[in-house]
Amino acid sequence: MFLALLKEGLAKTVPPVLGLALLVGIWSLVAMGSTNNFPTPIETARQAIDVFSNPFYSNGPNDQGVGWNVLSSLKRVAMGFGLAALVGIPLGFVIGRFEFLSRMFNPLISLLRPVSPLAWLPIGLLVFKGANPAAIWTIFICSIWPMVINTAVGVQRVPQDYMNVARVLNLSEWKIITKILFPAVLPYMLTGVRLAVGTAWLVIVAAEMLTGGVGIGFWVWDEWNNLNVKNIIIAIFVIGIVGLLLEMALIKLATAFTYEEVKS
Amino acid sequence: MSDALSTRYLEIQGVDQIFSTKKGDFQALKGINLAVAKGEFVALIGHSGCGKSTLLNLMAGLTRPSAGSLICANREISGPGPERAVVFQNHSLLPWLTCFENIYLGVERVFGQSALVDGKTRENKPQLKERTDQALALVGLSHAAQKRPGEISGGMKQRVGIARALAMEPQVLLLDEPFGALDALTRAKLQDELLAIVAKTSSTVVMVTHDVDEAVLLSDKIVMMTNGPAATIGEVLSVKLPRPRSRVALADDARYLQYRKAVIDFLYTRQAHVEKT
After folding, report:
1. Which of A29, A147, B78, B263 fits as disulfide partner to A88, beta carbons 3.0 to 4.6 Å?
2. Other CB atoms within 10 Å distance of the CB of residue B1
């Protein structure tokens, strides 16, 4: 019994640990072979302890703790993403519900969706005349598409059986939306939200590199200018971990709202 | 109530149904004429694809006929409505609502809004809950009220579907192969329950089935449909077996076997060949 548990525990923990060990190993090799002061994992870890021991210091706008930088980036993501959800989800609903609107918007979405987020940044700078709103605008425009598309697909895929129930019971449009459409679309919508948050987190780093100010992307660029490679590597880990946490939280949320479908 | 209304409660007059498909028009039903009396139990039987469900959907008002008319209680059927409740083949319960909430949705619509359906009076919340509880008790599922459809068996889901339909006190109950997806034992149990419920509520019922025994056991009238395309009513058999009926007693009843044979003859001798479209 105890041995079986131990075996199971090992089977679960060994592969991820090996994966991490491989990453650190390759990193060490690169650091050893490097001629331009590429930091070793140990040096970076020491620096990380230093950085995280005081994450919330502030010495003026261009020198702030990693905590402030992450929080400012998250704030921008939250604003851009929130606005995108506010516009994108209702838009997805009407596109899914009305064939005419679907035909009207589909070419636009197909045209604009593949555009690199950073191509939108100059437009934002031009229109909003400020770095911060431009970054939020960039997040908005690139995180809106997954939500519009997934919500619309969800609405179009509401099983006909449920709509027949609504028709036989003669439910009001309000009841149809709250009791049938919304719960049926929710899993699709949350998939859209998850993809959108992922994209937003990818884009914010690039956008902040260009716009400056406080933020994790700006921090990476600033440390590059200081030639502080250790901090850049720490930033990469921080970006990865924050992204992972966002993803996990949203997956957890999505599973809570997913129900067994009707089998026909 | 006039005599004409009680014998021709639900009436189908010269109904055709044509679907437009990519390969051109497809005539599913042709010249259907049928009258169902109040309180009568009618079974629609025929081979797969003969248009039984198409006909039921027309009665439900989910689709409109290409020609002819359908009348229920002297009124043209112009769309679906809670006065003609449907039990769907795949139960169609909403998976995010509990069994109680699934039934309550219909009850609330019919009894919670004043004079919307047949001048039924508006009831308050405790009364609506009471109705829902009664419907659950009728199908023996009071214990599962707070469970979601994903947590109960197929037979139980189908019973919730029936309870939802019955709780609305419909004028006509339309059943689309309600027990088709269940195993034989569960099916027999639910058939017995349905017999008891229908006897208690004296509902008018139209049921689509492809099960000969089910049709003979449950119905007053078996409507046998010819094979499609352009399916129509081949024969109508009146089942004059006394009620209450018991499947055990009927198993070797001569009349029961005779009715059974008549249906089998129709299905497998005269309508044996499914025409290719």
Report:
1. A147
2. 8
